[in-house]
Amino acid sequence: MGQVVKVALDAMGGDNAPVEIVKGAVDALAESEDLVVYLVGKEKIIKEELGKYQYDDRRILIVPADEVIETAEPPVMAIRKKKESSIVKALYLVKNGTCDAFVSAGSSGAILVGGQLIVGRIKGIDRAPLAPVIPTASGCSLLIDCGANVDAKPNNLVQFAKMGSIYCEHVLNIEKPRVAIVNIGAEEEKGNLLVKETFPLLKACDDINFIGSIEAREIPNGYADVIVCEAFVGNVILKLYEGTASVLVQKIKEGLKSNFKSKIGAALALPTLKDTLKSFSTKEHGGAPLLGLNGLVVKTHGSSESVEIKNSLLQCRTFKEQDINGKIRQQLMIGND
Amino acid sequence: MGQVVKVALDAMGGDNAPVEIVKGAVDALAESEDLVVYLVGKEKIIKEELGKYQYDDRRILIVPADEVIETAEPPVMAIRKKKESSIVKALYLVKNGTCDAFVSAGSSGAILVGGQLIVGRIKGIDRAPLAPVIPTASGCSLLIDCGANVDAKPNNLVQFAKMGSIYCEHVLNIEKPRVAIVNIGAEEEKGNLLVKETFPLLKACDDINFIGSIEAREIPNGYADVIVCEAFVGNVILKLYEGTASVLVQKIKEGLKSNFKSKIGAALALPTLKDTLKSFSTKEHGGAPLLGLNGLVVKTHGSSESVEIKNSLLQCRTFKEQDINGKIRQQLMIGND
């Protein structure tokens, strides 16, 4: 048995809470004996769910929290007012050192704001980027930043590139990850003001494998491992990626049902088709880490099922085992906080 | 027979020039007796291609141009130096009033720069946006701006919204087109500085049907008809849209070939599958207009085949018939140049 990793898990967050969340926790414990999960939320409901399973009860703890932050609530206000919410209580477990990490499928805004306000950034890190893993033709890439802090500055993007590279190498196991900046052309002189100012700074970094610009067309091909961009652009990329895939798949399904011959064809091809689509689902790769905090905060999809919760908990284990925050401090040459 | 519409067509531009370009011109003439096409490029080659077809030779003219601007050339320099290129000569045909419009599958950069430098903007229009039509689940939308002028200002975006709305209504035949601004959340207070400043200006316009923000996830659903954004974001959206669809389709095809059962299924379902994918191809909707110029400039895909060229030529006819530039001048309340 290795180092124990303690994760606070928001039992109330997301469309499938608490059923899929609790199942994800139980499944993760079965896969990793180093893991301890703090289920944060309404005690009675959590107990009922846990009653369905057999599990090592020394490694699942319940932390009662009676309030829930809804997705539609303005995040800053919600974090300030709902002190008894599962998100706020869980974040304090990380803040005070009881837990190493926090995983939630709840309100993105509250998680992003709460992560920065309560857990706090590593000293010297100016912004904490949200870095989801997206599927590509050849595997997956880390898209950094997709968070709520828009209008970043060039030095923010340089920090994103470095943190993303460390995470990609040690958590996603990609050696010498190729780092690229999202641009509207391959040439160095292309781009908006932000990209033009950031490009030479990234080029000058000798601690990352910077390969230059990436056009959005090349993102699905897996042309880069770490895709650096400002949060507005990152958010557009992430959501369009999900939207396009989902509409296209829907259209294909409708089309295949439109006549007898194609219906038979579809029935024969369906299992393979499903496998293909699954490999292209953004849900297969666990949650998105909010990097640069004094601890780890992971945001999973609102529609998370148990497998995504399980993968996110295992991801927290790797994050601690690989001492990602230690590596961030060291590589960005910033002191301990 | 209606009003005659004269279009300068770059016979040398794009991957399939001159074969598909010349074929597109001949096909367009057969569909519209109002159309006159000026084929601009190397005379001998154009004549050889034209020799393959029967057509009304009073309505196809050849304008010799011995130089070609390559895709990789820096646009500003190319436009200045290559006075004998098909792009520059064709743009002057529009500038001096010989032609109403220019269509090219050649260098995007040269077309965008040349359109503004040679043809020139309508007085009072500060930027000429490139507005491709993208396929959606329910039809198509106009994405404005996808051009080369990044870092737009709020008043530029307001002009884009108005011009896009006029084009959408009168060329794409969408009544009271729904205009939305690309944003990272549905609420008015969300967004980056540019979007926050632009939102109230659009809301105050009583001559467009502004429906608020659109998240990138909703773009493929066809939630808006005119999608307004700054060019860097627009470029990312357009290219990611094309890239995601193409990779997903490739993956599906590979998957279907992977075992015997799905191979049989795929053979049966293929015609229907192809129809579906065709309806989602960005090539089915003709070229992208560069709006706000003293004339019309249309950029088609570099990989354009004859059908896209033909559709783009017919689009130029509608543009003139509907007096789009007159409507732009009138609605934006700017005088004649």
Please outline the helices and strands.
The structure is a homodimer of 337-residue chains.
Chain A: E1 5-10, H1 19-31, E2 35-41, H2 43-50, E3 60-64, H3 75-81, H4 86-95, E4 101-104, H5 108-119, E5 133-136, E6 139-144, H6 154-170, E7 178-183, H7 193-203, E8 209-215, E9 226-228, H8 231-256, H9 260-279, E10 288-290, E11 296-299, H10 306-321, H11 324-331
Parallel strand pairs in A: 1-2, 1-4, 2-3, 4-11, 6-9, 7-8, 7-9
Antiparallel strand pairs in A: 5-6, 10-11
Explain this structure to me?
Two copies of one chain form a homodimer. The first copy, chain A, is of the alpha/beta class. Helix content of chain A is 44%, strand content 16%. Chain A has helices at 19-31, 43-50, 75-81, 86-95, 108-119, 154-170, 193-203, 231-256, 260-279, 306-321, 324-331; strands spanning 5-10, 35-41, 60-64, 101-104, 133-136, 139-144, 178-183, 209-215, 226-228, 288-290, 296-299. Chain A has a six-stranded mixed sheet, sandwiched between helices. In chain A, α3 (75-81) packs across α5, α4 runs parallel beside α5 (108-119) and α6 packs across α11. At the A-B interface, α8 and α9 of A face α8 and α9 of B.
